[in-house]
Predict the structure.
Amino acid sequence: MMNLESSANPQASALSPKREAELHELCNEKPVMPVAVIHVHNLYNSPEVMEQTLQNPANDEKKYNSTVDTTTSTRMEPAPLFMKLRIGFAATGVFVGLSILLFFQADPNLRNLHIALWGLASAFFALMTMIVHIAHLKWNRDKWVHRLKLGILLGFIVQTGCIVAFLTYIILAAVQNQPLYPLDGNERGYYVAAVWVFMTWKWSFALFWYSRAYRKMYITRYETIP
């Protein structure tokens, strides 16, 4: 092969054997990368970068998932106006429930323990729902996410019990042929009591629904999204 190269190129015979060996190795090597590619390749494979990659190989994947999760969580976030409406609506439920309690206990002509207690229960669960909304805006979500299990469980149990209580009041009122009025006395006013059972069901369901929705939102932020 060297003879063919020498005959094709008379100047090749003037090269030293060492130079000919270098040229021969150069011809058998892969194509040389551009300078910019070599720089990036060397930078990526530098000891510092390789050490960080070995220490935490999922670093890039975590950064990607964190970006995707934050974007998804932001999409799930309700608008500030809707959050204010939720808090205001729950505060109204607290006020109305407490008003029913006072109204049906202060007036002797309308005193009814059933209606008053269900009004108090309605106010309590409206207050719990309002706290859940405020906690979503103000409190530490990493700690609050575990407490939302209580709201989910309590809301589910109470709304199930309210369905039974509502049907019981309606059946008793129908069997006893109770009129809507008068309401004084614990043996009357079952239809109105059923109305406030329904209000208690509504707020216990709201507590269950929003606790579950906020908890799902917090958990989704830290899950890996494919």
The chain has a mean pLDDT of 74. The chain is about 80% helix and 0% strand. Residues 18 and 33 are 25 Å apart (CA to CA).
